[in-house]
Amino acid sequence: MRDVVPAHVTVVYPEETVDAELLLERAARAADEMPAFPIRLGAFGCAEGRGGVFVMVEDSRGGLEALRDRLLLPPQRFSGYPFHATVAHPSTAQSLSACWTQLSGSGLDVSFRVRELLWTVTDASTRTVLERFALTGSSASSRVALVGGVLMDGDRVLLGLRHPDRVSFPGVWDVPGGHVEPGESPRRALRRELREELGIEATVEEPWSRLADDDLGIDLSLWLIRHWHGDIRNLAPHEHQQLRWFTARDLLDSLPLAHPTYVTLLGDALSI
């Protein structure tokens, strides 16, 4: 049975959201401060009408409750919906009755760890993930959270030559981007970095790839950027000596890159 929306636990509903920007800021801050936590799934249920098919959730450690309390401070509204994992979403499931017939009378007794928050938009045919927040909290590694924009112009990708005086990765070619500030979502961080470094307002969609390197202590989220407003300028020459467009052949021509996997990653981007 195909369903646009996979099984999930909703923490904040659309009708509870008054200030979306503030809610996203709180989600980013909560993810930085809260570690992953367990939940247990139990009996299946089905709400009347178009309520969908769900599984009851036992929040034994209080992680979901604590998360909701942090997100739904005023001006957000609290609806009082009980926690549950949606199996068949009422807006997109192709056959709620068939799903309920298959699952009626059954149940689960399994535990999971909640490791990530998603900000999504769902309509009758699509589900789009707009933001992702990994729960790191006290269990976070020592890796530094970074974002990078892979700007594409046809068969070319934009790279910046890092200034030789930079403490980290001097004198190599890198994608524009930078650090994620405390309480800032990766999407916002990338928009800010591209605005500060290149003077553009970029259309930032879903993350494209991720590079985690414990030896270097970095956790880099990469985003494909194909659309932006404004002319690209080097507004941060103290960070990048120059900006330049490269083709796939250029990347293979012994170009000094900030990370050895860039040849493969950027080559894949140029082949999309």
Summarize the topology.
Elements (H helix, E strand, L loop, with lengths): L7 E2 L10 H14 L3 E10 L6 E6 L4 H9 L12 E5 L7 H8 L3 E8 L1 E7 L4 E8 L9 E10 L2 E7 L10 E2 L2 E3 L6 H13 L2 E2 L6 E5 L4 E8 L2 E2 L10 E7 L1 H4 L10 H10 L1
Parallel strand pairs: 8-14
Antiparallel strand pairs: 1-4, 2-3, 2-5, 3-4, 6-7, 8-9, 8-11, 9-10, 9-16, 12-15, 13-14
Explain the overall architecture.
- There is one protein chain.
- The protein is of the alpha+beta class.
- It has 2 domains: 14-134, Cyclic Phosphodiesterase, Chain: A, CATH 3.90.1140; 144-271, Nucleoside Triphosphate Pyrophosphohydrolase, CATH 3.90.79.10.
- 21% of the residues lie in helices and 34% in strands.
- The chain contains 6 helices and 16 strands.
- It has helices spanning 20-33, 63-71, 96-103, 186-198, 248-251, 262-271, and strands spanning 8-9, 37-46, 53-58, 84-88, 107-114, 116-122, 127-134, 144-153, 156-162, 173-174, 177-179, 201-202, 209-213, 218-225, 228-229, 240-246.
- The strands form 4 sheets. Strands 8, 9, 10, 11, 13, 14 and 16 form a 7-stranded mixed β-sheet that branches.
- Strand 13 and strand 14 (218-225) form a beta hairpin.
- 24% of the residues are buried.
- The model has no long low-confidence stretch (mean pLDDT 82).
- InterPro entries: Cyclic_Pdiesterase, MutT-like, Nudix_hydrolase, NUDIX_hydrolase-like_dom_sf, NUDIX_hydrolase_CS, NUDIX_hydrolase_dom.
- This is CTP pyrophosphohydrolase.
- Keywords: Hydrolase, Magnesium.
- One of its GO terms (biological process) is DNA repair.
What is the average of the pLDDT values?
82
For CATH, the homologous superfamily of the largest domain is named as Nucleoside Triphosphate Pyrophosphohydrolase
Q: Which term fits the overall shape?
A: elongated
User: Which H/E pattern describes the elements?
Assistant: EHEEHEHEEEEEEEHEEEEEHH
EC number: 3.6.1.65
Keywords: Hydrolase, Magnesium
Organism: Pseudonocardia autotrophica (Amycolata autotrophica)
GO biological process, one term: DNA repair
